[in-house]
């Protein structure tokens, strides 16, 4: 329950991303700056937090032991997550991007076979490859139908080809974010705290943000003052607060792939916060009846998915986390 609550609270702060990215796009800002500035602004906050906790040496030790893994999975978890989301903001309103992001419910479920779970059996604790939970996956069909519904309004307005500018990048991001996060949890294996891990991933993903910033400087010039300020707020609210809350939630259930998928599913609640935020702060039109029906289906799918992901087996505490007891 605690993990689910943290996930929902993090989605409130993540909603700032979709609202302000849309705001920057409407004011003529480039998605290249929206993506890169967020991580540039995150860096000093995270460095200060880790330095004050006197844990920087531990982070450097971990990163120096497996630098390639850090570069790869940080690129996946941060780069292939946020760059596509920023790009999608140029093709549709924030609520549409946030609603499509609910595809992460399906993506998280499908990733289960790539990881192992520690299970208590009669012969001891063993690592068992995760299986795709079919009932929660079946519930995800509700989410998929909801996503189709919310794109109905958009397709009627701009056409199917332009709608792909939202759909395809978000599908990539929906797989990349949980994959990168889970791989980094597996890599760190509880040896780093959340702030250390987020800082390490931010540092390891810097090459991508530097490349995007240089390309933006060459093609569109410097960002406006307005875009810099809004990117700062995105970095604090979404990059630091929301990311730390979400990573904390997933850390609580990191040994259970089905519970992980359930926590990741809480991110679909962002669409509610984004609709309200765009309506009050950007004076945006509310979604039509078709899109609102789709949003309702997405929320229903999240609730059903979370319910079906609950485990029947007893969970016992082990030294580095939770171990499921087979039944």
What does the model show?
It is built from 14 helices and four strands. Helix content is 74%, strand content 6%. Helix 2 packs across helix 9 (194-204) and helix 4 (67-88) runs antiparallel to helix 8. By secondary structure, the chain is α+β, with helices and mostly antiparallel strands. The two termini are 22 Å apart. Strand 1 (116-121) and strand 2 form a beta hairpin. The model is unreliable at 312-327 (pLDDT under 50). Strands 2-1-4-3 form a four-stranded mixed beta sheet, with no helix packed on it. It has one domain (2-325). It has helices at 2-26, 31-52, 56-65, 67-88, 94-100, 104-110, 134-158, 160-188, 194-204, 206-219, 225-252, 257-265, 270-281, 289-308; strands at 116-121, 124-129, 315-318, 321-325.
Short synopsis of the structure:
This is Multidrug resistance efflux transporter family protein. The protein has helices spanning 2-26, 31-52, 56-65, 67-88, 94-100, 104-110, 134-158, 160-188, 194-204, 206-219, 225-252, 257-265, 270-281, 289-308, and strands at residues 116-121, 124-129, 315-318, 321-325. It has 327 residues and is an alpha+beta fold.
Features:
alpha+beta, 74% helix, globular, single chain, 14 helices, four-stranded mixed beta sheet, 327 residues
């Amino acid at each position: 329950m605690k993990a689910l609550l943290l996930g929902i609270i993090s989605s409130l702060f993540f909603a700032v991303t979709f609202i302000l990215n849309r705001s920057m796009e409407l004011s003529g800002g480039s998605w290249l700056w929206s993506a890169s500035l967020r991580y540039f602004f995150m860096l000093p906050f995270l460095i200060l937090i880790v330095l004050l906790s006197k844990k920087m040496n531990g982070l450097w030790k971990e990163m120096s032991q497996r630098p390639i893994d850090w570069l790869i999975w940080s690129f996946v978890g941060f780069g292939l997550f946020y760059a596509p989301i920023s790009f999608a903001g140029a093709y549709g309103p924030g609520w549409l991007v946030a609603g499509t992001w609910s595809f992460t419910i399906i993506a998280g479920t499908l990733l289960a076979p790539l990881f192992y779970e520690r299970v208590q059996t009669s012969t001891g604790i063993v690592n068992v490859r995760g299986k795709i939970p079919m009932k929660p996956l079946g519930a995800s069909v509700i989410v998929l139908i909801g996503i189709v519904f919310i794109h109905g309004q958009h397709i009627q307005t701009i056409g199917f080809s332009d709608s792909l500018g939202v759909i395809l990048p978000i599908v990539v991001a929906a797989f990349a974010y949980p994959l990168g996060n889970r791989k980094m949890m597996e890599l760190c294996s509880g040896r780093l705290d959340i702030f250390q891990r987020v800082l390490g991933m931010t540092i390891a993903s810097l090459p991508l943000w530097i490349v995007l910033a240089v390309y933006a400087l060459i093609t569109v010039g410097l960002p406006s003052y307005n875009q810099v300020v809004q990117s700062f707020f995105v970095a604090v609210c979404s990059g630091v607060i929301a990311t730390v809350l979400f990573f904390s939630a997933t850390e609580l259930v990191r040994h259970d792939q089905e519970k992980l998928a359930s926590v990741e599913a809480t991110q679909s609640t962002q669409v509610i916060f984004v609709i309200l935020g765009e309506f009050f702060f950007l004076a945006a039109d509310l979604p039509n009846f078709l899109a609102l029906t789709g949003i309702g289906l997405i929320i229903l799918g999240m609730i059903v998915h979370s319910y079906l992901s609950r485990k029947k087996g007893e969970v016992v505490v082990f030294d580095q986390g939770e171990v499921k007891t087979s039944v």
